[in-house]
TrEMBL record:
This is Amine oxidase domain-containing protein. Residues 7-427 form the Amine oxidase domain. It comes from Nonomuraea turkmeniaca. It comes from the Bacteria. The lineage of its organism: Bacteria, Bacillati, Actinomycetota, Actinomycetes, Streptosporangiales. One of its GO terms (cellular component) is cytosol. Signal peptide: none annotated. InterPro entries: Amino_oxidase (IPR002937), FAD/NAD-bd_sf (IPR036188). SUPFAM superfamilies: FAD/NAD(P)-binding domain. GO terms for molecular function: flavin adenine dinucleotide binding; oxidoreductase activity; UDP-galactopyranose mutase activity.
Amino acid sequence: MVVGAGLTGLAAAMRLERERVVVVERDEAVGGKARSRGRDGFTFDVTGHWLHLREEPLKELVLGLLGEDNLARLERRATVWLDGRMITYPFQANIHGLPWPSRLQCLAGFAAARMRRRRGAPAEMSFEDFVVERFGRGMARHFFVPYYSKKFQGIALDELRTEWLKDYFPMPSTAQVLGGALGVRNDRFGYNARFLYPAQGGIGLLPEAMLAACRSRDGFDIQMSTSLEEVDLDRRRIRLSGSADWLGWRALVSTIPLSDLLDRIPGLPEHIRDARRTLRSSAMRYANIALRAPSPLREHWVYTPEPDIPFYRMGVYTNAAPRMAPPGGASLWVEIADQKGPVADPDIVDALLKIGAIGSAADVLFMEHHKVDHAYIVFDDAREKAIDTILPWLAEAGVHSCGRYGRWTYGSMGDAILDGFSVAALVAGSAENT
């Protein structure tokens, strides 16, 4: 039994080809957060979902599912809107875009950080300590603190740990930082410097192709628009929405958020209840925006740390795949942290005008608003202890909680697929041993 037809759940189902697999999905379409929606000839994802595939087997899988001709190979075009100008991303390697006073503050802070590092750094540190220790107080003040704390998650950086940084945080060398301060453009490093994206149809084509692969074999079934209501661990059975019947399982693969899974298990032991209470995540609102004219921007996405811009990031789908909009149009998205609630359309339009993402307010055909309850996991002091308590307890009961939200972690779409493969191997191995 697999709960959730996102990338992890579908990947697990694909690899469990010798097993009878039933997938349960609460939505009317597969993909989870890697799905696409269409309206009036425009296509939108659940914000930008680019394929950063470092492992060759993953590249071969995606190319086999989608076809070489329907995948664009792209080099990242990303910037940071700061001080009324676009600064090449990664910010820490391109501070030549700042005015000279701000640039000198960043350089002085970086030099001081270098001197401190020679004396040694603590083994464990908060995210705030990390950016100050690695890049200095100037860069922390100009970008990292306003973006990651005040705009992105709305959480003080001294509460955040650094486990999520592995593979996902651009780490320029000293030479790159200094060169970037003097005008050398450094935009070709970091995990997302190059990526793949469907030439048309949006990222939702990938889970749809994975579903088609699952359906091509015997022993596979999927129930759409069906939610998990309750899990009985003692009897290894679940109850689904719309039915009073119980369904038994030998192994349960859950890809829904870990907190949601635990809330569906009655009678949790006290130590599991205590651990569950410490799980934190941040919500996100996003808006899909259709334009009747092209966007003046050439970027794929833009970070916006300044407080007068209501969103923390925006992007232009059609700069990666022009067929995401009718000829002459454009499809955009903006991401908004949920701390302050909904943002009015005119405020979003004014901000897009300010950063040069649209040429005129009259270019906006429509704007759709959506909310993601679990957007980003909060890596605070309690997280590691909580998952080290919860996940083994679930596994002992035959429940494999996996994927980005099932493991309560951070990761790419490629990581989600690989996790599904790993769990499938574990389940298949346990079947052979019984």
